[in-house]
Specification:
Helix content is 37%, strand content 20%. By secondary structure, it is α/β, with parallel strands linked by helices. The protein folds into two domains: 162 residues, P-loop containing nucleotide triphosphate hydrolases (Rossmann fold, 3-Layer(aba) Sandwich), CATH 3.40.50; 129 residues, no CATH class. The strands form two sheets. The chain has a six-stranded mixed sheet with strand order 7-8-6-9-10-11, covered by helices on one side. A five-stranded parallel sheet has the order 2-3-1-4-5, sandwiched between helices. This is RNase adapter RapZ. InterPro entries: P-loop_NTPase, RapZ-like, RapZ-like_N, RapZ_C. It holds the Pfam family RapZ-like_N. GO terms for molecular function: ATP binding; GTP binding.
Length: 304
């Protein structure tokens, strides 16, 4: 059975991700206590109505048994194909979302109401408490920072996540703009703002680093290739160490001012040049998406 565990911070989009998986044919369960996961998987895999795909959302509402999750994930992975999707967002974005929806955070309320869970008096305290509770799960999963994502973009990224079923370390190149903040899901961040900026060419300003005119502009600059070569050398040097550490995902964030030109071009170029070294996905956080476009997967030197 293929199992996707969705976890992370409340308000970061777990419901959107779960709905996307339901649309993809997964049997979906929200807020299942972790200790019941093995029983549910066994029941669905061997029951009268045999299910091949299961998605379960787990968050701080199950805090009493979150400590059991690492062991449960390892046990499930010995019998099933298990992947973990960890959704995160900045505290500022989360506060705004809870304010707009008027929903209560699962850990907010009078502190004395539930001493075991430890409900917090303020929303900000509840968010930080939840970060502490779910932090150990982040290392098991593919992380997505939804702070600046629209719901349709998150759905597209979740779809890309479940479509790529290859084993081994997944190398993610994510472009972003510093003016919208650092991506929380990055393992390494490279700042390419020192490079010439196509934004100041009025002909190139409305385009992105995937458009031919911007590609020609940046590709003709030796300093751009010097930056790309340096980042590539760094990644190649340390990639074996992360494989030895049994990491499933490694996210390399490339940032420029707006996340539209330089970072996009460099992320695409690095992905193509490292496609023979690992399974590679390219993701653009802040560049305008074309209709029907999601993150693109690269393997064996070819864009998919």
């Amino acid at each position: 059975m293929r199992i996707v565990l969705i976890t992370g911070i409340s308000g970061s989009g777990k419901s959107v991700a779960l709905n996307a998986l339901a649309d993809a044919g997964y049997y979906c369960v929200d807020n299942l206590p972790p200790r019941f996961l093995p029983e549910l998987a066994q029941f669905l895999a061997n029951g009268e109505e045999c299910h091949e795909r299961l998605a379960v959302a787990i968050d701080a509402r199950s805090s009493a048994s979150l400590d059991e999750m690492p062991g449960i994930i390892r046990d499930l992975a010995s019998e099933h194909h298990v992947r973990v999707l960890f959704l995160n967002a900045s505290t500022q974005a989360l506060i705004q979302r809870f304010s707009e929806t008027r929903r209560r955070h699962p850990l907010s309320g009078p502190p004395a109401r539930d001493a075991d869970i430890g409900l917090m008096a303020s929303l900000e305290e509840a968010i930080e408490r939840e970060r502490e509770l779910v932090a150990p799960l982040a290392e098991f999963g593919h992380q997505i920072d939804t702070s600046n994502l629209r719901a349709n973009v998150l759905r597209a990224w979740v779809k890309s996540f479940i479509e790529d079923e290859r084993e081994g370390l997944l190398l993610m190149f994510e472009s972003f703009g510093f003016k919208r903040g650092l991506p929380l899901d990055a393992d390494f961040v490279f700042d390419v703002r020192a490079l010439p900026n196509p934004y100041y060419d009025h002909r190139l300003r409305p385009l992105t680093g995937r458009d031919e005119a911007v590609i020609e502009y940046l590709d003709a600059l030796p300093i751009v290739h010097e930056m790309i070569d340096d980042i590539r050398s760094f990644v190649l040097k340390w990639l074996p160490r992360f494989r030895d550490d049994n990491r499933s995902y490694l996210t390399i964030a490339i940032g420029c001012t707006g996340g539209q030109h330089r970072s996009v071009f460099i992320a695409e170029t690095l992905a193509a040049r490292l496609a023979r070294e690992a399974t590679v996905i390219v993701r653009h956080r802040d560049a305008p998406m074309e209709v029907g476009e999601s993150s693109r997967s690269v393997a064996s030197g070819h864009m998919a």
